[in-house]
Amino acid sequence: MEELGDLVRKHGRLVYRIAYSVLGNAADAEEVTQEVFLRAFRNLDSLRDTGKFRAWVARMSWRTAINHRRGWLRTLRRETAWHAISTPPAGQTELRLALRQQIARLPEKLRAVLLLSAIEGLESPEIAAILEIPEGTVRSRLHLARRQLWEALT
Amino acid sequence: MSSGMAACTEYRERLLDHVMGAPPAAELAAHLKSCPACASESKRRQVLGTELDAELRRLANPDAPAYLAARIASHQRPAPAWGARVAIAATLLAVIAVGAWLVNARRESQTAEAAAAISGWRSPTASLLLPPSQPIYKESSHE
Known about the structure:
The structure holds two protein chains of two kinds. By secondary structure, chain A is mainly α.
């Protein structure tokens, strides 16, 4: 059985990015990443096929991040995170600000697929498993999300 | 001229699919070849689309802070192995058994003390019930 440190090294980036795609800020994404790995490690015995750890932990990241977002304070922080156009970090380009603004305006279902599909190494079948929707739905939502985004920005 | 402008407007609406990666339809491709304004607009949108894709990837792929892995590993509390679990359970049982035995022994001791106290107890007025022939007080022998 692998050590927790090894699992974090292998899958930490993915878990963090999934959490970030839901929460939109680093502090909450870190908190969720820690929670996911500690929970996963405690329940490792219940995972019959250890080869499916990546899919298992990716799904857990999504769910944990969604639960994490439910608190009103966190919702407020999320809103200010994705809508943070009034106080942009130094060096942020106009395009980046416009993109953030338009992503924030997308319906939740479209935004989720758009951001998950932009995560390196995450393919449609994995996104479908994370969101528990058919792969075809992932593709159609992605197309719609991109179209709405591009229409607004180009 | 006006029909040409109308055609350009129509073609520019179709440009979106092209920007999103679909190859231009033959009719659109032909128009782009003959219309420098639309060709320029197509080029501009493709560049913007590429920038947007890159920006989206940047936005969706933040790097987790370096300290996070170490922080998570420091919270590691591995579940005890089966041997350790059995030992913990046995210790708990032993503690419970000893505790129960101590409580029981204390209770028995208290019961015995109470029984002894009751059996040795004499009513202060019991002497009044003695027959007259029996002296209530022992006669003093110091005279």
